[in-house]
Amino acid sequence: MAVIELTKENFEPTITGNDFVIIDFWAPWCQPCLHFAPVFEKVSQDFTDEIVFAKINTEVEQAIAAHFQIRSIPTLMVFREKIIVFSQAGALPEEHLRNLITRVKDLDMDDVRKQIEEETQGR
Fold it and tell me: Model-level pTM?
């Protein structure tokens, strides 16, 4: 699957219908975003069957960007089983993006859910 463009219409179905989604928040005027795009595209080609790679143009989808409090672009956000497990501003080199994917794939999601539950009960 190629990198897809997320909009308010397909955002929720994409997140809820896939176990692993990586989103690149970007804008057409952002030079670091434009430099990161080929890296994102290249890495996406190696994971076509297991990970959805998506982009959100923050100029067009301002409501989504505001909802996730995107203050700097590019910002990379990773969802596993509908849970945000990574969110960080800045373009990643290819090796770091691949390492991030490996770390996220290796997460024990039962443990992640347990940690979230403990944090919310502790408030």
Answer: 0.93
